[in-house]
Amino acid sequence: MFRYQFGPFLAYFHSGRTEDLLVLTDYARSVTEMSEETWLWYGYGLYRQGDNAGALKAWNKADSINPNFFEDQARNAISLVQ
Q1: Predicted local distance difference test score (pLDDT) of residue 70
Q2: Is the pTM for the entire model greater than 0.90?
Q3: Residue 4 main-chain phi, psi, to 5 deg
Q4: Domain interval for residue 77
């Protein structure tokens, strides 16, 4: 379901529901590890929890899956922790 529908990730992030965001992204990653958008939002959840190293790893994974799509998003996220 979450391969191309990321509204719930955005909603949980912007409403401060970090735990729910991480539960949802964990589920989505269990379905497929090749969704760059899922890795992006997983990284944002980790970042919100103060896990900068984990967030950076997740964002680098997103960037490695699809570097063209994530020229702005993943690299902007990565700049948050560097």
Answers
A1: 65
A2: no
A3: -130, 15
A4: 7-81
Distance CA 68, CA 47 (A): 23
Backbone angles phi, psi at 34, to 5 degrees: -105, 25
Q: What are phi and psi of 22, to 5 degrees?
A: -70, -35
Residue 5's pLDDT is what? Answer: 78
Count up the domains in the chain and report the number.
Answer: 1
Within 8 A by CB and 6+ apart from 55, the residues are: 43, 44, 46, 47, 77, 80, 81
CATH of the domain at 40: 1.25.40.10
Q: Provide the residue type at 62 as one letter.
A: A
35 and 6 Cβ atoms separated by less than 8 Å = no
pLDDT tens string 8-67? 999 999 999 999 999 999 999 999 999 999 999 999 999 999 999 999 999 999 989 988
